[in-house]
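Forgive a beginner's question, but might I ask you for the amino acids of a protein and the tokens describing how it folds?
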Amino acid sequence: MYSEDYTSKATWFIAGTAVGATLALLFAPASGRVTRRQIRRQVEQGTDALSESSHDLLEKGKELFDRGRKMADDAADMIERGRKMVEG
């Protein structure tokens, strides 16, 4: 639960940083060409950061799924052993 909350906050922080940087560039005293180039660079960096975050989330999800599957398999084995002990 903690890692999900941390990842979500990190993703929103990165997105907010990208939006803030874009707004700062829009109000900066630079030519249109320079401003567009800087915005494009910021968007690319934001896209890369979000892509990495989504990849990390996917990996965490796979890891949690695998751990859950192992726990379910272990529980099934324990139930089967218990059933065999009761049956004799």
The mean pLDDT is 82. The chain has one domain: 2-87.
